[in-house]
Amino acid sequence: MINTIRGRNLLSLDHLSDRAILEVLDTAELFVEVNQRTMKKVPALKGRVVASLFYEESTRTRLSFETAAKRLSADVLSLAVASSSVKKGESLRDTIATIDALGIDAVVLRHQSSGAAHQVSDYVPHVRVINAGDGLHQHPTQGLLDVFTVRQVLAERVHARGPETGRELFLDLHVLIVGDIRHSRVARSDVAAYSALGAQVRVAGPGTLLPASLDGWPVTVADDFDDALEWADVVCVLRLQRERGTGSFVPSLAEFTRTYGLTTERARRLRDGALILHPGPMNRGVEIDSAVADSGAAVIERQVTNGVPIRMATLYLTISGSPEEDAA
Ligand code: CP
Q1: What is the CATH number of domain 18-138+305-321?
Q2: pLDDT in tens, 211-224
Q3: Tag placement on the chain: N or C end, fewer CB within 10 Å?
Q4: Which of 53, 56, 57, 58, when mutated, tests ligand 1's pocket best, judged by the most ligand atoms within 8 Å of its CB?
Q5: Residue 323 has pLDDT above 90, yes or no
């Protein structure tokens, strides 16, 4: 188990302890206040350089990482992959070596291949690598911002907002993750984060959209989606990833919506106070009805807002700390 991300890469949440996750959430809580100021900037990473490399499309993750780096006073090198020498066939290794030659402290990488962030960490061991989503593997900062959002809302309800509010809010919390689990890196990171904090996690979806094996996943499979909705305190709705061929895993989108979509009618089964999350981008009318996404139970915009403090905390801890300092 890893007990801190200080001075380390953040490639996955799989081996992070509850202590490591809470350290990120507590650090992000401090940065929430910075983001509410008129002057939203602190000098924490002044003089440091963060490279932003997105080989796959992104709105939320890219903008919030770049905003986070700038609010920490770091310089940002943002590579527009579509108009870069990648289009002339330059390899990932040579691209990273080229950016490294300009002098960087960290690289934020989104890539379509599972394991790409790990590969980059081997190419530039002196640079901190933060995985912003790699293929079907992991999306660690999404998992962190999801548990941060749930903790924030639950803490507000018990008037105990702040770093002192930790693991106890998650103990025995019922979390239901529904949809395309098979192709979802968010599901993998969410399962790791919620279960490390002590929540009970169930997954629901058509058999074809569940992983071939759930061995090693600390989850149970919901036999009945409607019953699971009555059980859940938190429902994480996943996107049907049509760009990864999800369409061919279900007979039709209409049938998926009928059986596993969070429709207005189904949302009525939820307990009072249950929260609805979606990492975005949403397919409104497919995995979630528009009215449900815009309802008071949904905290989807808050997830986006929280992306900035969580990514500020991630950049700050990975770049400024070192495991040796932490041990000392
Ligand atoms: N949730 C998420 O990763 O969204 P983007 O693809 O817009 O970054």
Answers
A1: 3.40.50.1370
A2: 999 999 999 999 99
A3: C
A4: 58
A5: no
